[in-house]
Amino acid sequence: MEKAGGSPSVGGSYPQKNAEILSSQYGINLFLAGLLLTFAWAVHAVGISKSHLLSYLITLMLIQLLWMLWYLGRSCTQRRLIRDKDTHAGARWLKCGITLFAVITLILDSFKIGYYIDFSNCLSPTEGIFPVTHAVHTILQVYFLWCHAKDIIQSFKTLERFGVIHSVFTNLLLWTNGVLTESKHQLNEHKERLITLGFGNITIVLDDHAPQCNCTTTTLCSIFSQGIYYLYPFNIEYHILASTMLYVLWKNIGRKVEQHQQHKTPFKFHGITVGLIFGLVVLTSTIAIVVVYLIQIGRSKIKSELALTMFYLHAIFVLALMCTAGIVALLIYRLEDRSLDNSKNPARKLDAELLVGTAAGSWLLSWGSILAIICAQAHPKYTWYNLPYSVLVIIEKYIQNLFIIESIHREQEKVNDDIKTLRIVTLSRGSTLSLTPAYKEIYNGRAAPESGEVPCLCGRESHGRATAEASSIMHSASDVPFCSGSSVTNSKRRILKNIAAFLFLCNLSLWIPPAFGCRPEYDNGLEEIVFGFEPWIIVVNLAMPFSIFYRMHSAASLFEVNCKT
């Protein structure tokens, strides 16, 4: 709220701060109630069924749908008004990513509808209503984020805070529900595989939530039930991405926009061939490792041990390469003297906090594995590979977080004003003709070549072309050491772009194994003996979702770094 004169009112910000606190507390309580309901269903609490949980989620989605429709309708009536935008929020590549995950989520919903139809005799009606509501919710939410993720809301701020925070925690609860359902499926498979590894002293009790009736079409039921769990990783990533984009929208409500705007930095493949080649090799080999792992694990004790050994050796090699690449990038940054951009930016602040916060999940698992190896009385040969693997996971995330956070905070390279305004002119038949655009235009990218490199203008080529007619004159030539300076800068820039591209593909590669069931933390077996089966499984189920999200979020951040570098 502001006074008529335009100066901020001291009392005006107080109600808005209260609205922010009240809305955040509303969202937290909404989430805690749903979390407790989810936990009660997971442990088979008396009087709590899946229909109760789904009814709660359906209600939350319907409320969000009403709010989004109201917001879209109000935006249409005010579409001629000039709205403030946060140029850092809702990048196009992020919208494309969430759209891809949303499309796969819609396929998942169609599978759930088919599954409900085949088991309709013994399933609650809510299990049929939920995927339909979720599909509508997904379509409208993606449209909403495409159109309004950059908005800085300045009207109806109190009401909008509650609407946006409701949407944030609704997506977090849908993410929690997806994580729990997928984890229960993975846990059942894990319990069965432990027997083949020789851990017979662990009690195997399957957690079964299967329908208590026969399927009307056996083949279709098998396709739907198996296909659902392969699609869950994309559904999980969709909801966590949606919640982060909505959170940035919530933080931007009532924000005062700074004058300078971020320039668009499109992604280009030029100059990152080496990084892409090495990254694609890692991606291809990882997919092959995952396929072999899922085929071999659980077949026999020997095959399971070979699968685990193969996974650890491959992961150690990839993590070592990533550590080396990250160190090289940080060393290049140390050689450069460039200040950091500390301006207020909710999207960038959230990115940094999510990197460190979600990395704690895999750090917890890694320290648990290290302690298990140290404390265990017997060590099968394959478990020793877990030690360097766990150590490298800790180091690699530490280095990568430093690289990404510094990259997104670094200011764009600036050029001296004297150099920007310098013009190269040539004398031709008594008149001065401009041979090249102003350096200011070159550095602003309007006359730069497609490669993005600063041209080396030493005057030799232009002098050769104009020797027959005129002589070239360079003003302040001694102050323009472009040839040597720009080549060094471009070399550093090219190395950094290749490193970012390589790390981007490596993070996508390391997202695939845990997302699709290749989880040595489950199958290793040593941790269950040291910590106990139930305690370690609880730790894994809590930490693994954050570890999976870290890889996808890192890949998204590295894509942004590549565009910015």
From TrEMBL:
Compartment(s) where it occurs, according to its Swiss-Prot or TrEMBL record: Cell membrane
GO function term, MF aspect, one: proton channel activity
Transmembrane residue ranges: 26-47, 53-72, 93-117, 129-146, 229-250, 271-295, 311-333, 354-379, 499-517, 529-550
Main subcellular location: membrane
Cross-referenced Pfam families: Otopetrin
GO cellular component: plasma membrane
Membrane topology of the entry: Multi-pass membrane protein
InterPro entries: Otopetrin
Family under the similarity heading: Belongs to the otopetrin family.
Protein name per the record: OTOP1 protein
Organism (species): Jacana jacana
Gene: Otop1
